[in-house]
Design goal:
The chain has 279 residues and is of the alpha/beta class. It is built from 10 helices and 12 strands. The model has no long low-confidence stretch (mean pLDDT 95).
């Protein structure tokens, strides 16, 4: 299935969507396709949202964001995210902010089919008072210890980028895996873009194999994580992350870049060609 077909068929306006990939394997190609198809009122979910979420928010695709730490890694702020929060441009954005530990517990609970997970942290804080919909103090029935119950994250759709898919539809993820496995298992629908299709996967130690029964659609998109990196395929384009800081600071400059580099292009391959990036 093409990426265009996968996004059109499985992601709809108003749904919650998690696009994971911790520092690498960030699904930029899928994010750009969401922007091309002008999806609206999405509830974006991600640990450490970076440039692709800045672009989705700036293009008016999102109305909510569940996240833990948002920024341009190693550079600074996400200016489109900040503009949406401070000045409601291009539209208001509701935030659900967590710690990394909270997000990990919430994803694990969703992946396990549980309504919530538990943390030892927070009982001595007032965080539950400001976020009662997602944090509730609970006393352990065995020890009497006070714990924090964290509401499970169960995305309507999870989108990942991975290195390989085999002929049967199983998917291999190598390198830093972050919350990819938990986000996939917690979701109702999983879409994956991959660098290449192979006959048989050779999974090395610490790799993840997502089974075919978990995945609704796979699209082969070489370079689909660019400008982040894909271990074993290409490095991170640090110059692009630096350049984005200037592009995203100004609304008109941002819109001009998105028009010429996303909306005007047919797919991610054309973007890589325009930027003269080898995938």
């Amino acid at each position: 299935m093409s990426l265009q077909q996968a996004i059109a068929q499985y992601l709809h306006d108003g749904q919650s969507v998690a696009m994971e990939g911790f520092t690498h394997l960030i699904p930029f190609a899928a994010g750009h396709e969401i922007i091309r198809q002008q999806k609206k009122n999405l509830h974006l979910i991600r640990m450490t949202p970076d440039l692709i979420y800045d672009q989705l928010i700036g293009m008016g695709c999102a109305s909510e964001l569940t996240f833990s730490w948002g920024g341009n890694p190693g550079v600074g702020s996400l200016h489109r995210l900040r503009d949406a929060v401070e000045k409601q441009w291009p539209q208001p954005l509701t935030l659900h902010e967590h710690s990394h530990a909270e997000m990990a517990v919430a994803y694990q609970a969703g992946a396990s089919g549980m309504p919530c997970g538990f943390m030892k942290g927070y009982p001595a804080t007032q965080l539950a008072e400001v976020n009662p919909a997602q944090i509730q103090p609970q006393q352990c029935p065995f020890t009497g210890q006070w714990l924090s119950a964290i509401a499970a994250i169960k995305p309507d759709v999870t989108i990942l980028h991975a290195q390989q898919a085999d002929a049967d539809g199983n998917v291999l993820i190598r390198g830093i895996v972050g919350a990819a496995r938990e986000a996939a298992l917690a979701a109702k629908t999983v879409i994956v873009t991959v660098e290449q299709q192979v006959e048989k996967i050779d999974a090395d130690m610490n790799a993840i194999v997502l089974p075919r029964w978990l995945i609704a659609a796979i699209a082969v998109v070489p370079g689909g994580a660019y400008p982040s990196y894909a271990q074993g395929h290409y490095p991170r384009d640090n110059a692009f992350y630096l350049a984005w800081d200037e592009i995203a600071r100004d609304r008109e400059k941002f819109l001009s870049w998105m028009q010429s580099h996303v909306l005007a292009l047919r797919d991610h391959a054309e973007l890589l060609q325009r930027l003269q990036v080898a995938a």
